[in-house]
Structures are given as C-alpha cells and as structure tokens.
Amino acid sequence: MEAIKTKIEGPLIIEPKVFGDNRGYFYES
User: Fold this and answer.
1) Pairwise CA distance, residues 18 & 27, whole Å
2) Following CA atoms 19, 28, 15, 12 in sequence, which dihedral angle do they give, to the nearest 10 degrees?
3) How far apart are alpha carbons 27 and 29 in whole angstroms?
4) How far apart (Å, rounded) are the C-alpha atoms in residues 12 and 22?
5) Alpha-carbon distance 8 to 12, whole Å?
6) Residue 28: what pLDDT?
7) pLDDT tens across the length of the chain (29 residues)
8) 3-state secondary structure string, the chain?
9) Which of 2, 22, 21 minimizes the C-alpha distance to 13?
10) Separation between Cα atoms, residue 15 and residue 19, nearest integer Å
11) Please, what is the Cα angle at 13 between 12 and 17, to 5 degrees?
C-alpha cells in the first residue's frame, strides 16, 4: 500500500498496489 500526503495536514490517501496475471487483477490488502 502507498500513503500519499495531501495539501491539508492530517489526511492521507491510501492507495493499494494492483497486481495482474493471466487470472486477472488483484489488490494487496
């Protein structure tokens, strides 16, 4: 997962990593 800082102090945007293979796409949790 990646935490992205915002211009406002405090809140973060949490973005999961996406992995893909021949079965489809998956999110890291």
Assistant:
1) 5
2) -160
3) 6
4) 32
5) 9
6) 76
7) 889 999 999 999 999 889 999 999 998 77
8) CEEEECCCCCCEEEECCEEEECCEEEECC
9) 2
10) 13
11) 130
What residue has token string 């997962």?
1
pTM of the complete model: 0.47
Structure tokens at 26: 């998956």
Tokens of 22: 């021949």
Residue 2, both tokens: 């990646």
Structure tokens at 24: 């489809």
